[in-house]
Each structure stands twice: as structure tokens, then as C-alpha cells.
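Collaborator request log, item 7. Partner lab (contact: R.S.) asked for a structural prediction of 3-O-methyltransferase 2 to inform their binding assays.
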Amino acid sequence: MSYPHGQVSALVALIVSSSKTIEAHYAKSSKPYVPSLDDLAPHPLDSELSPSEVREAVQILEGACAQLCATVARPNHTVLNKLMQIYEPGCLQVAITFKIPDILLETPQGMHISEIASKHLFREVRTDVFANNRLSLELLSTAPLNGLAFHFTDENNKAVTRLPDVLADSQWGHSQSAVNTAWNKSTGFPGSLFEWFEGATPEGAKQGARFGLGMIGWGNAIEAGGVVTAFPWRDLPPGSTVCDVGGGIGNITMQLAKMYPHLKLKLQDTPDRITQAATNVWPAECPLAIVEDRIEFKAMDFFVESPIKGCDIYYLKNIIHDWPARECIKILSGVRNAMKSTSRVLIHEHVLQHADRVAEIKSAFAQAPEPLLPNYGVGRIRQYSIDLDMMVMLNSKERTLEEFTKLGGEAGLKFVKLWDVGELGVVEFCLAA
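Returned to partner:
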């Protein structure tokens, strides 16, 4: 459908409708209102998974607001604003490096700009006096998102400036090697990002540890925990084994342990992450699973060995997107070699959507209502931002359902089903006949 003269009104109508859906959701909570940014008290809905209709309403609202602004503003106005967004990561890095949210937490009345050295992301309570708001509290040094903020504003932000150099390089520009990346250009390190994170240098080890914690913040922000209720774990027989392959410190596995005590869980990753999980994170966050012997920690290198054999479910969250196709096939082939006839593989990642509108029967996901872009535009922008992140840091990518199916087939796996669990998808495979 074309909206040559009414697109603005149509987008406004989507904004109004989505806002009403969100307000109605808040109205049913114990605090029946949408909090303002200045409200520092946590809202009960902050820690709850959003219902699908609310999650979609937020995505429509984000996409429609951005598309509306881009539609009504002059093109040069919009492009200039996008160019100047380059400064935002630097300002965020200043805030978290100097722990400004932590400092302001001790001074709720606010501090003068000359004392805190930054004036971004906070609220101005008086002229040049700033205090925290709901957003800056997410950057406290104790908040999980803090580690990811450092990753994006530090190593990632430095690396992306070298992307043109890599693409112009006669050898690196066509390479799919994980050691020919913009991140390699920016650091001069000859190995992969994960070798760096595993302690190639003290700085690398520090960044790896904070990245591991940051992935908890990432999972919370994108509501990756939706897989805990959207997939039928409850229907698995008692004693069913779930192996979290490359699961870091085990954020999703901890959620499974707390909700489904009938499962036997296995967490596998590199030695540093397994040590961090077994000695620090799980004893503090999920000790009962350790006491009841429902969790096994085992270090592995999935390029050298297969995961623990004979598990019912092999779960890989944000693993395949870290690697080019050749390495992905090697990882999945290792999993295939560990599987029994009834095993299933679950790949939990962004499943890229195209921006062109197609017949619903051909679309893996529901498409946004017109005149919004069918992939929700800015409402689902993270899948494309992470796609760029993978290219810059690892020479990898996010993938479409067709690309996942192709990778699985080349590793001896057969596609079973796509589970829509919110922002991410879960691609289920079984053994190929």
C-alpha cells in the first residue's frame, strides 16, 4: 500500500496506538503509571519480561518515531545528526571510566559540572548541576550493562574507525579470517579477539572478564531470558541434559536452573570463563544448583573437541554469529558428533530480517504494519548494529534463517523449527537422516 500524502498521519497513528498499548500494560501493575526518566526508584516492570504485544508496541514506537522524524526533516538535517552520533560513545566512555553514576548516587541533590567532568545522560537539576536519571543508573559500576558499555565504547569504538582501512586493503578486504579485522588493525594484535580475551595480555584478560559480565547486561537488555519460557523446557523428562556450549559464565543456564530443577545442566566454555563461573558467579548467584549437583562445569575448545556427549539439548547462544562460515561448520560438526539420535540443537541469536516487504507466507517473522518498514526499522536496529559489530571485531555476521539452515545442512543437521522468542530467534536442528 502506498501513502504518498498520508504517511505522516499513518506513522502518528501507529505511535498513538503503540503508546496506548504500553500505558495499558503499566496500568495493570502495582505502580500503574509509566515512570518518568527522573524517577530513580525501580519500577516493578523493569525486571519482568515484556509480553509479546508490549515488546512489539515498543518496537513499533521506536521505528515509527525515527521514521517520522526522518520523513519530515530535511535530508541534510537527518544525515548531519547521524554523523554527529560518533561523539556519543566517547561521552559514554567518559561517564563510565570516571564512575560518574556512582559518584552521583552518593550525591542525589546533584553536583556541579566542574566536579563531575561530564554532562551527558544525566538530568540537569539546576544550571550546570547534574544528577542521575533512570538511564544513568544502568551505567553504575555494579550494573551488568557497565561491562558491555566499556566493550562498545572502548575496544569496539576504536576498531570501527579502522573499518575503511580494512575494506580498502587488497588482502584483508576480501579475507574472512578472524585475525584480519578492523579490531586487529586498531590493536596490532595478531590473534583473534577471543585469544585476547583469554589473557594474551593483562589488558586483554581484564577486557575479557568485564565482557563476560557485560553479556549478562546484554541478555537482560534484549530480554534473551524469553527463551526460558518460550521454549518447552518444562516438557522435557526429568533428568534431561542441557549443554550450554560456549555459554560464558552461564547467564541463561542459571535462569534454567532456577526455573526447571528437573534439568541436568552442563556449562562449557574456555578455561577462564569456566573458572569465573564456577568460583565466582554461580556460588553467589545460583548456589543451590551446585549443592544439588544439577550443574557441571567443563572447559572446552569447540574447535578442537566436541561438547559433552549424549545430551538431550545443545544450546548455543550468540556463538555462531562470532565466526565466519568455515568455523561455524566446524563448531556445529563437533556438536553433531556429540549428539544422540534424539538430541536437538538450539541456536539462539538474531535472525536477520530483510527491509523489503514480501508475502507473509514467505516471511520468517511477522512484518511491521504499514507504512512502517517491514523489519520495524529503528525498532529492531540492534540486529543490524550487531551485524556490523561482528564484522568489525571478528569478520563474522548475523544471519538470515536461510543462512542458518545452510550452515546446519553443511554440518549434518536438519532444520526443524524457528522459535520466535522476542528480539532473538531460536533455530532448532536435529540430526540429518
